[in-house]
Design goal:
Blueprint: E1 3-8, H1 14-18, H2 23-32, E2 35-37, E3 47-52, H3 55-75, E4 80-85, H4 89-99, E5 118-124, H5 129-142, H6 146-149, E6 157-164, E7 174-181, H7 187-201, E8 220-224
Antiparallel strand pairs: 1-3, 2-3, 4-5, 6-7, 7-8
């Protein structure tokens, strides 16, 4: 007899399981001996319903669906990022002066808003409300570690050392500044590295989409010529 269950699949990826004119869905059903019911796009349900007759056919289908979603996810751009805000009255005023440096204004859409200045820890690919909630819960779980990593002391620093993201000035897109702690300690770097490691261990980040490094490149983007009127 047929058994029915659900497989968690963010609605965003349902189109990859269906395929053009339903070809992928039909192939999966024929090769695994299962029946697949995909919610309509407007329903925005983060699962698909599966009917199967034995565990081996279900396992086969589940592995294939995971592979399809994983492959599609790798091709998608990050949807969210984890960051440390960098904002103060002095920074806001100095960024305005910097924007007008040299007597010619830089297009405002290419300059980061002072209120949004930040140090990026890492990027995430979250495709459902459940995944966003999971990321939020993980941040709450990590939060108690922060005072210990920072040795119970506040972070005080200054933005300096303007840098570009590549070695060819004529083709540069990003101009950023480094945040230097006044006590010259590694506390900020340790915080960022441990936070990235924590999210990687929990499966919501990976080193591949974060520069293939366990060490976060702490930087504060000031200008990005790729930004449009909608900002970053």
């Amino acid at each position: 007899s047929w058994q029915t269950t659900e497989i968690y699949t963010p609605s965003y990826f349902h189109k990859y399981i269906v395929g053009k004119s339903g070809t992928v869905k039909k192939r999966l059903e024929n090769e695994t001996g299962t029946l697949i019911y995909v919610p309509r796009p407007h329903e925005k349900k983060d699962y698909i319903t599966v009917k199967y007759k034995n565990e081996s056919s279900f396992s086969s289908l589940e592995i294939r669906i995971e592979s399809i979603v994983s492959s599609a996810k790798k091709r998608e751009r990050p949807t969210h990022f984890l960051s440390i805000p960098v904002a103060s009255k002095d920074i806001t005023e100095n960024l305005g002066k910097f924007q007008n440096l040299g007597g010619s204004k830089i297009h405002p859409h290419k300059v980061q808003l002072p209120s949004k200045l930040h140090l990026t820890i890492g990027v995430l690919k979250l495709f459902s409300e459940g995944e966003v909630k999971q990321a939020s819960e993980l941040m709450k779980e990590f939060a108690p570690r922060i005072p210990y990593i920072l040795c119970g002391k506040p972070l005080r620093g200054t933005l300096r050392n303007l840098e570009i993201m590549n070695d060819e000035p004529e083709s540069v897109n990003v101009l950023y500044a480094e945040l230097m702690l006044l006590d010259e300690s590694d506390r900020l770097q340790n915080l960022a590295d441990q936070c990235l490691e924590f999210f990687v261990e929990k499966g919501l980040m990976d080193y591949e989409q974060n520069r293939n490094s366990k060490n976060v490149k702490l930087h504060c983007t000031l200008i990005n010529t790729r930004w449009n009127s909608n900002g970053p």
